[in-house]
């Protein structure tokens, strides 16, 4: 029996409830999910998941790229630091400091082990946004006197792109590499873009919108042969695909805890020691974290993150099998519908992120019709703007297709029943919305939409 403590009370979940295996070999979820596939035609279904907790009835959660639910085992670890172990890990004169420091160092070792790093190469931060700022601005500013050029890609997360824009204001030159229609970069273009004054290449490991995995080993080899530092934003990749920082010649890596069932507000930057990468710190102060990131660490967050990292290793095979099985089921069902397409490479992809376009439907109307499923039509921070995704544009998608795309995120606690529900809901509602669409009517009448001259544009 596994204890899950909240406040003064103790709720008990059995480990088998966390990881129950169904007859099909597909793992069942956390005790809170009880989605049932709808009976018969159910276009007006309003609720999907009966949550026995105090939160009531809630939609099915399929937005794992925005964030992942905290693993109860992680919360258990964190609670120790909100109760007994409250010392400042930087207090070196008494036992309160020593015990917390020991736990922080264990967490550091767990975070390092996932990527084959030395614990000394792990710098704790507030999350991957800070890591990306720290890596890009830190390296650029340290080497900037002689090296004023950075290479990145057009499909990076906003925090990489925005850091680059700021560096341009400081006088740096940035090359934004295009991607092919499958979302992958062209390695020849990368090599050609490297100049004598290039200080850094920054290419993300797994894309947060389309799940495409970039060829890290090839990129690392090219960077090392040109003596240019290689940074990768691995917020969506860390613990989910195998990455060895030495095999891939990665010099800096950004990691986020809340994408691996850990707490929000904490992350880590891997900074290589041999050959040494120098950084100009963006946060100055008491010199914590080898002088690269000052400020008192948050032991509950850091140790929760360490536990989440340890669990990513422990659960790797089970997570992979579970996520792959559900992803294949979902993808096969959605792509068997007419006029749907998978965005991004079919081969080089993390299966827990499935991005599909439903032609002749507005993604936003579809999201409205799917209120019982928590989904996103793109990245969480831009979904409020209703702008079509710049990532899908970089792949060559036109506005209409980019607008009709939805991202499905599957994770450790997603159940097969939830996926079955989603498949049925999507099938019914896409059909329903298309029946309302004049474009769909024209397509069915055999009219070539490209031949139409639209008025008023
Ligand atoms: C690829 C990528 N990079 C960076 C981030 C930002 O991470 P954090 O929320 O830890 O700042 C995210 C999260 O959305 C992401 O998906
Ligand atoms: S929060 Fe992940 S894309 Fe903005």
Automatic annotation (TrEMBL):
The keyword Iron-sulfur applies. Transmembrane segments: none annotated. SUPFAM superfamilies: PLP-dependent transferases. Residues 21-47 have a biased composition (Polar residues). Keywords: Iron, Iron-sulfur, Metal-binding, Pyridoxal phosphate, Transferase. Residues 60-422 form the Aminotransferase class V domain. Its cofactor is pyridoxal 5'-phosphate. NCBIfam families: IscS (TIGR02006), PRK14012.1 (NF010611). Signal peptide: none annotated. Pfam families: Aminotran_5 (PF00266). The keyword Ligase does not apply. It catalyses: (sulfur carrier)-H + L-cysteine = (sulfur carrier)-SH + L-alanine. Its EC number is 2.8.1.7. Residues 21-59 are annotated as: Disordered. This is cysteine desulfurase. Catalyzes the removal of elemental sulfur from cysteine to produce alanine. It supplies the inorganic sulfur for iron-sulfur (Fe-S) clusters. Plays a role in both tRNA-processing and mitochondrial metabolism. Involved in the 2-thio-modification of both 5-carboxymethylaminomethyl-2-thiouridine in mitochondrial tRNAs and 5-methoxycarbonylmethyl-2-thiouridine (mcm5s2U) in cytoplasmic tRNAs. Belongs to the class-V pyridoxal-phosphate-dependent aminotransferase family. NifS/IscS subfamily.
